[in-house]
Amino acid sequence: MLDFHPRSYFKMVSKLAVAILSLASLASAHYTIPSLITDGAASAEWQYVRKTNNFNSQAPVTDVTSADFRCYTSETGATASTATVAAGSTIGLQANGPMYHNGVINVYMAKAPSDVSTWDGSGNVWFKVYEIPAVTDGGSTITFPGSNIQSFNFKVPQNLPSGQYLVRTEHIALHSASSFGGAQFYISCAQINVTGGGSGSPGPLVSIPGVYTGNEPGILINIYYPVPTSYIQPGPAVWSG
Ligand SMILES: *[C@@H]1O[C@H](CO)[C@@H](O)[C@H](O)[C@H]1NC(C)=O
Ligand SMILES: [Cu+2]
């Protein structure tokens, strides 16, 4: 007697489907940047960082003119807790896994007019506080110190005025950036309350979106061939305070 069990057949097929699906999601598993590092310790995910639309999909932003290019929260509408940190101290950001795509990092800050938790970061208010560019040597090699790391640290500028700020991180993945819109931006915004600050005037100031067109030589770039002889980091100069 032929003993055919449709149920076990279905089970086997669905197991296979699950396996294929998880392979597919592995291949497209990018990353998010959900944790703020203070005093050398990473916070819980999305505690001080606004939960981004891609908290599940981990998909990047590719339109540098979209509203989501700022904090990527149009769907979550998220706000976060605000971490109090001293001016001059070291803070950092941590991704949910290695930021493995070849690319570069920028961190921008903007001072909230009052309560940062209800502020959207609009206006010509952003300045750069940190960057990890690509490294070139005149055409032999290009390397990406900002890739394959899970976290990085930088100093809150000593002369930054006290107050509440958004801290926006972007990891710009350049592995398919040779056509317009091909660069992938992994973005998140943290909320901090800076104490013991100074009287510096951060700048140059830019708006986000607005800071890029997508045609910048550090965004629209073929990183493979010919090997770039130099690399121009997108955005304004770092304000060191
Ligand atoms: C920011 O820090 C100041 C000084 O410690 C404190 O008085 C204030 O409550 C803090 N604000 C927030 C939102 O954490
Ligand atoms: Cu990816």
UniProtKB/TrEMBL annotation:
GO CC term (a single one): extracellular region
GO molecular function ontology, one term from the record: metal ion binding
Chief site of localization: secreted
Co-factor requirement: Cu(2+)
Biological processes, Gene Ontology terms: cellulose catabolic process
Keyword DNA damage: no
Xref: CDD domains: LPMO_AA9
Protein family: Belongs to the polysaccharide monooxygenase AA9 family.
Name of the protein in its database record: lytic cellulose monooxygenase (C4-dehydrogenating)
Organism encoding this protein: Macrolepiota fuliginosa MF-IS2
